[in-house]
User: Fold this.
Amino acid sequence: MASETTQPGFWARVQRASVERLHIRLESLVVLLALSTAMALLSPYFLSLSNFLNILLATSTIGVLAIAATFVIGSGGLDLSLGSVMGLAGVAGAFVAVNLGWPSVFAVVACILAGGIAGHINGQLVTRAFVPAFIVTLGMLGLARGLALVISQGRAIYGLPPEIVYIGQGRPFGIPMPVIILVLTAIVAHAVLAYTRFGRHTLALGDSEGAARAAGIRVEHHRRIIYTLSGALAGLAGLLFTARVNAGDPTAGINYELTAITAAIIGGTNLFGGRASILGTMIGALIMGVLQNGLTLLAVQSYYQQMAIGAVLILAVFIDQYQVRKESRV
Amino acid sequence: MTLLSLRGIRKSFGAVDVLHGVDLSVAAGEVVGLVGDNGAGKSTLMKTITGIYRADTGSIEFDGKDILALDPGQRRQLGIEMIYQDLSLAKQQDVASNIFLGREPTKRLFGLFPGFVDKSEMDRQAARMIERLGAHLPSINRSVGSFSGGQQQTVAIARALTFNPKLVIMDEPTAALAVREVQSVLDLIRRLRSEGIAVILISHRLNDVLSVTDRIVVLRHGRADADLVTAKTNMNEVVSRIVGGGDIAAAAAHEQRG
Assistant:
């Protein structure tokens, strides 16, 4: 009774303001700061500009995938094929540049087009064949990975032209190109998701498909666009990765969907749709980046890192669902 | 003046025929009650009017235009709004987002990039609409899911009225409401009529239907079985047309008590 009349506490008000104005969950920022502080205390190498850029560079690929995951999950869908499509796109780009010897522009287009086509197929199957997104994208996970191996005959494609390599390794103003591309992509994606009709309809769709349909939103059409967009972003991630390692590796991106989806969920995306923010997802991606970087600096075997990511995903969803239940009990 | 006219509407889902040729007309500013037993096809009929379902055969004219081929968004633009029984709200979005869903006003960002949603304009208009309805909400910026049932219904009603509709369809608007809230919904319907807005009211609460409508159409087995002028009918007749014979006296007596 009393709680109805009293003003919410300072912390609660800051929380609400951050969610409403910036679309960020404050908890994720706290986790990022705590994690960074812990790593800085544990490792003398953590706090340095070069390591900071390292983290950002390592986060760039995952970051782009996490943006894709944010749109799809925010719309009430799911894309498990992100990592495989990323691998396929990288191989497609390398194939066009090396085996076909076409100009680099075509290789860039091939990456994004390959991803976009794979994503569009996902969207068509989800909206027209009524196969659940979980199954469609799980199938695409296998299909895209297999196709990448077929195209590359199971071997990495080396010898990319310098323009492509620059996309992955160039450092204008000392900042790695993939980081610049990630930041630009995130800014555009944030503007689209938070401030355009497309973005608002995406979240409304994930919130209540019935409400979106009743409001005259072309639900199926919208879903197809989102899956296509997701695939194209995976294609961009594939380009960044291929350019950075200077090879079209058919095994690139294995398990990356796990990290990308985890980043999106940590950032406050509701697993069942309706709530999502790119800023939040970027914080989530940074948390994953700091975690991986820190564990590497601490010489923890990469096998354990994989376990840590899996555990963080489950924990993040648990905390989110716990809060949702707490709020709905008012 | 006829605003809405349905002729021979048929709709089936697979092997199940739901509507077998329904005729229905509604005049501008008229309040029509649509009653019938569960499974009579009321909701299906309404969804063929809003465009969620497409009629298999038959014609639908609204404001003199054939609207059969239009999708729900286009029909809303012509002035057909529906308040769904489940309210069809996006529960995690705030009040303005729900009211303007699908029709968000846009502006240019920095005077350059078009297509950005004008949220402050949305909030302003939403607040004005809520105020016009005489309702009180805790905050217009909170997610709709945190509101009470009555408050959520206010949002659904505001959404239906913001864009100056010509026809508002209400599916069981009073089923989940407290007594005082029921009266305010009935008052609202009377106000809409006085403003020349037509209303189709679907309700099981025949007292409400009898007190607020001009006409009552009884849907039975997928047909418009009876078309009664409210002033010239009574509970007994309406009930008997709904159940279509049988132990009418007992059913009517039961309704009268309820």
User: Anything to note?
Assistant: Chain B has two domains: 2-79+166-257, 91-163.
